[in-house]
């Protein structure tokens, strides 16, 4: 396990409020030893409600980014009841709702940090094991299974499962969204996320069917360029994190290739995706 880094914010030295940021530094684990709920804050910025977790642990209130190498921020010794709505800052509406639910559940979470290991064991539900069948019953069941296996046509099994050696794994950047049906024009979707410093190369993007989903990112967080006849999408201030559409130029793309969260206007707003693509290919027919 990577060593835990103590948080060392710029301390004004006069007791002024401090802000601790949960960002996308891959796998970084931080601890705040002297968080003051009366004035200090945790800022998660534009991180979406489905991208982070917050929970009460024995050590304190823990924020994590599960999809970012275990990135975490721990408020040591703090319990949920210590926090208020002003203690955690978030820009995303879904994230705000998630935080409100967490704070509203403070009473139910109050004992998490004090419950002993023995109590945890005592209150854990352990389902009863099913009764073992008698020897004759087991023999009959086994015989029935064998008969069924013999009766199943070989060609039907092959049709359902397919030859394993011909089943190729989807490309990494498309794997999370393959066949999800979310594409605006019916194909696969490349989801732009906060994978710190990752350099994704998509070699099989099809402009006729595939889409790019910017989620809750805003226009100031994305830069689109064209290099070596390939469109490059960079998530700014994220360690050089890029997506390269190999062999796809800006004139291959239309507005139908881009989407975002329902509330997000990044695709069509000034300086957004369409504007940036338009500045590359100078094509008024993009929209």
Structure in a nutshell:
The protein is of the alpha/beta class and 287 residues long. It folds into two domains: 5-116, no CATH class; 172-286, no CATH class.
What does this protein look like?
The chain is an alpha/beta fold and 287 residues long. It has two domains: 5-116, no CATH class; 172-286, no CATH class. 21% of the residues lie in helices and 21% in strands. It contains seven helices and 15 strands. The chain has helices at 93-104, 106-109, 117-123, 135-151, 154-161, 172-175, 273-281, and strands spanning 5-6, 19-21, 29-32, 41-43, 53-56, 60-65, 71-76, 88-89, 189-191, 199-202, 211-213, 222-227, 230-235, 241-245, 258-259. Strands 1-3-7-6-5 form a five-stranded mixed β-sheet, with no helix packed on it. It has a four-stranded mixed β-sheet with strand order 10-14-13-12. The longest helix has 17 residues, at 135-151. The chain is elongated. The model is unreliable at 113-127, 145-185 and 283-287 (pLDDT under 50).
């Amino acid at each position: 396990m990577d060593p835990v880094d103590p948080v060392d914010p710029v301390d004004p030295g006069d007791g002024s409020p401090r802000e601790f940021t949960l960002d996308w530094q891959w796998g970084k684990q931080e601890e705040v030893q002297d968080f003051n709920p009366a004035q200090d804050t945790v800022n998660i910025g534009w991180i979406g409600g489905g991208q982070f977790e917050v929970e009460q642990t024995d050590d304190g209130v823990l924020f994590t980014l599960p999809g970012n190498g275990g990135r975490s921020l721990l408020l040591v010794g703090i319990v949920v009841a210590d926090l208020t709505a002003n203690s955690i800052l978030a820009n995303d509406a879904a994230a705000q709702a998630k935080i409100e639910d967490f704070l509203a559940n403070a009473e139910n979470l109050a004992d998490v940090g004090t419950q002993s290991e023995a109590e945890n064991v005592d209150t854990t539900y352990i389902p009863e094991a099913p009764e073992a069948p008698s020897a004759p019953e087991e023999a009959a069941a086994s015989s029935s299974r064998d008969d069924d296996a013999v009766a199943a046509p070989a060609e039907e099994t092959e049709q359902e499962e397919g030859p394993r050696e011909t089943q190729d794994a989807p490309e990494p950047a498309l794997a999370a969204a393959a066949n999800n049906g979310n594409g605006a024009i019916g194909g696969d979707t490349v989801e732009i996320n906060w994978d710190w410093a990752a350099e994704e190369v998509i070699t099989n993007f099809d402009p006729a069917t595939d889409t790019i989903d910017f989620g809750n990112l805003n226009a100031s967080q994305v830069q689109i360029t064209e290099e070596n006849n390939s469109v490059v999408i960079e998530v700014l201030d994220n360690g050089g994190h890029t997506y390269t559409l190999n062999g796809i130029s800006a004139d291959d793309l239309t507005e139908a290739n881009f989407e975002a969260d329902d509330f997000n206007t990044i695709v069509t707003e000034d300086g957004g995706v369409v504007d940036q693509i338009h500045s590359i290919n100078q094509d008024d027919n993009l929209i």
